[in-house]
């Protein structure tokens, strides 16, 4: 167990200096519970048992001689003393991470990187390019999380993320990398039989493929709902891959990102749907200088920037000439 020494003169709670040394694992336990709100979630994040986590936070409270949390059935809430400790604990965390990052410069990069992103970006863009990254950093292990609806980078459930929604909370670094463009696509056979041919804008007699109820909040689903005018879609699915398969089979029109339509044989009838999405690289501010996190961030940045045209625009060969 590592003690944090020589910090005691600079730490206080409610203006009172702390006259003790601390075990770093206890500070980490405090921050994890403060961020996750429950013992189970904090233990999972730290990869330790709940009993061990409970002992660490009890040891810290005994050392400080103040309660840091109020225990409720719904979770752990910070006391006034706990709130006062947050900023100091995060300063210690930042110092520890900076020390760890400095040591990483002296040896080949190793360890785990947890990346959160969308399934489609992972499958069609990141994974095909990842062998080159792995060749440069063979000792790094990458944990890829594609269920980003349940991933909160503010609570450190991931080290960094590539996402289409700008975070509004947390001590995060953001970088805008590009735009993910969407279009309305259908099979060539569908358009051959379509009464309006390749004319966009009037979809009163078109059939649509869309998302199920759980994804009804997505911009693509809302755009289709608006253009159905009360009609029912032909089919709903829970993935873009099945929507592309349905459109390829001629079941109707589908709204998908342009870069996923390449090599599908689908044709784009409308590129001005009005909800193209910004791609953000998001990471914890205190991890931004970690060499392994920086390496992944640079890889993702270069990947998105080099594919900006592909991500934003439909391939010219796929767009109807009007």
What secondary-structure arrangement, pairings included, does this model have?
Layout: E1 3-4, E2 12-13, E3 16-17, E4 22-23, H1 24-36, H2 39-46, H3 50-64, E5 69-72, E6 75-78, H4 80-104, E7 111-117, H5 119-136, E8 140-145, E9 160-163, E10 172-180, E11 182-187, H6 188-193, E12 209-211, H7 219-228, E13 235-237, H8 240-248, E14 254-257, H9 258-261, E15 266-270, E16 277-284, H10 291-306, H11 308-312
Parallel strand pairs: 7-8, 7-9, 12-13
Antiparallel strand pairs: 1-4, 2-3, 5-6, 9-16, 10-16, 11-14, 11-15
Helix pairs in contact: 1-2, 1-3, 1-4, 2-3, 5-10
Structure description:
With 322 residues, the chain is an alpha+beta fold. 40% of the residues lie in helices and 22% in strands. Strand 2 (12-13) and strand 3 (16-17) form a beta hairpin. Helix 1 crosses helix 2 (39-46). The radius of gyration is 25 Å and the shape is elongated. Mean pLDDT is 83; it is low at 1-10 and 16-20.
| SSE string, helices as H and strands as E | EEEEHHHEEHEHEEEEHEHEHEHEEHH
N- to C-terminal distance: 70 Å
Tally of helical segments: 11
Low-pLDDT residue spans: 1-10, 16-20
State the strand order across the main sheet: 8-7-9-16-10
Globally, the shape reads elongated
What's the mean pLDDT score?
A: 83
The tally of strands reads: 16
| Strand content bin | 15-25%
SSE class? alpha+beta
Q: Whole-number radius of gyration?
A: 25 Å
Main β-sheet, in a few words? 5 strands, mixed
Instruction: Please estimate the helix content.
Output: 40-55%
């Amino acid at each position: 167990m590592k003690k944090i020494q020589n910090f005691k003169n600079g730490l206080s709670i409610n203006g009172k200096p702390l006259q003790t040394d601390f075990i770093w694992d206890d500070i980490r336990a405090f921050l994890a519970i403060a961020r996750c709100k429950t013992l189970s979630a904090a233990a999972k994040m730290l990869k330790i048992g709940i009993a061990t986590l409970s002992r660490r936070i009890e040891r810290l409270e005994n050392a400080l001689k103040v309660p840091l949390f109020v225990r409720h059935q719904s979770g752990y809430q910070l006391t006034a003393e706990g709130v006062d400790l947050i900023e100091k604990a995060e300063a210690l965390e930042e110092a520890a991470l900076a020390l760890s990052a400095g040591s990483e410069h002296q040896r080949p990069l190793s360890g785990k990187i947890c990346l959160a992103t969308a399934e489609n970006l992972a499958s069609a863009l990141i994974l095909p390019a990842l062998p080159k990254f792995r060749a440069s950093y063979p000792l790094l292990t990458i944990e890829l999380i594609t269920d980003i609806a349940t991933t909160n980078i503010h609570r450190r459930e991931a080290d960094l993320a590539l996402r289409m929604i700008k975070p509004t909370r947390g001590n995060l670094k953001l970088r805008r990398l590009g735009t993910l463009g969407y279009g309305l696509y259908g099979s060539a056979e569908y358009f051959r039989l379509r009464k309006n041919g390749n004319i966009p804008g009037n979809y009163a007699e078109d059939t649509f493929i869309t998302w199920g109820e759980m994804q009804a909040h997505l911009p693509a689903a809302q755009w289709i709902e608006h253009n159905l005018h009360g009609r029912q879609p032909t089919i709903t699915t829970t993935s873009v891959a099945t929507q592309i398969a349905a459109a390829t089979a001629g079941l109707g029109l589908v709204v998908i990102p342009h870069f996923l339509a390449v090599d599908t044989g689908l044709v784009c009838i409308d590129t001005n749907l009005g909800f193209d999405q910004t791609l953000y690289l998001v990471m914890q501010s205190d991890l931004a200088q970690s060499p392994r996190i920086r390496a992944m961030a640079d890889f993702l940045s270069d990947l998105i920037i080099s594919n900006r045209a592909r991500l934003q625009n439909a391939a010219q060969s796929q767009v109807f000439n009007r």
